[in-house]
Amino acid sequence: MSLLPILRFPDPRLKRVAARVESIDDKLRRLARDMAETMYEAPGIGLAATQVNEHVQLIVIDASETRDQLLTLINPVILEQDGLQVCEEGCLSVPGIYDKVARAERVVVAYLDLEGAERTVDAVGLLAVCLQHEIDHLQGQVFVEHLSQLKQQRIRSKLAKQARITA
Ligand code: K2U
Ligand code: ZN
């Protein structure tokens, strides 16, 4: 297994829309394993293939306290969403930036698991937030793009300054 490099906002590759998975093969299973390892090591509670520059509809999530309930979702689709919650979000592609984002309180997501079986997950709270956050990534959207233009400009300036310092 390998740790994968994570793209950093505002890398334009984070705006690419991921393609549907047509075949669940060893290459995809290897990618899913490497994404899970990368997520646990970051540490994070979710990771989308887009973030590791693999533009396929694949996400891994583990929002459990015990960090032993890995969800691997292929071709995820939100079937239902209701309610509203505002949650402080971060992103492994936008290190050091946290802000509140309004999202649905509950989502029902249909997806394929690694065996190709059709499944659904009915989620509320942090898991619902994470599912929406990761599905956004597959559509080329980073959470900061839900914020005001002024906040986005300030974030871009801060990240550009960080990049100059660490270059
Ligand atoms: O970058 C990512 O996509 C992983 C995200 C997933 C996430 C963001 C906001 C809210 C829930 C999940 C995070 O970086 S994982 C780190 C984290 C953990 C708990 C709460 C917020 C952020
Ligand atoms: Zn993210």
UniProtKB/TrEMBL annotation:
Enzyme Commission number(s): 3.5.1.88
Biological process, per Gene Ontology: translation
Signal peptide extent: none
Binding site for Fe cation: C91, H133, H137
Catalytic activity: N-terminal N-formyl-L-methionyl-[peptide] + H2O = N-terminal L-methionyl-[peptide] + formate
Required co-factors: Fe(2+)
Bound cofactor: record note: Binds 1 Fe(2+) ion.
InterPro entries cross-referenced by the UniProt entry: Peptide_deformylase, Peptide_deformylase_sf
Active site per the UniProt annotation: E134
SUPFAM superfamilies per record: Peptide deformylase
One Pfam family linked to the record: Pep_deformylase
Record GO terms (molecular function): metal ion binding; peptide deformylase activity
Keywords: Hydrolase, Iron, Metal-binding, Protein biosynthesis
NCBIfam families per UniProt: pept_deformyl, PRK00150.1-3
Function: Removes the formyl group from the N-terminal Met of newly synthesized proteins. Requires at least a dipeptide for an efficient rate of reaction. N-terminal L-methionine is a prerequisite for activity but the enzyme has broad specificity at other positions.
Family membership noted in the UniProt record: Belongs to the polypeptide deformylase family.
Protein name: Peptide deformylase
Name of the gene this protein is made from: def_2
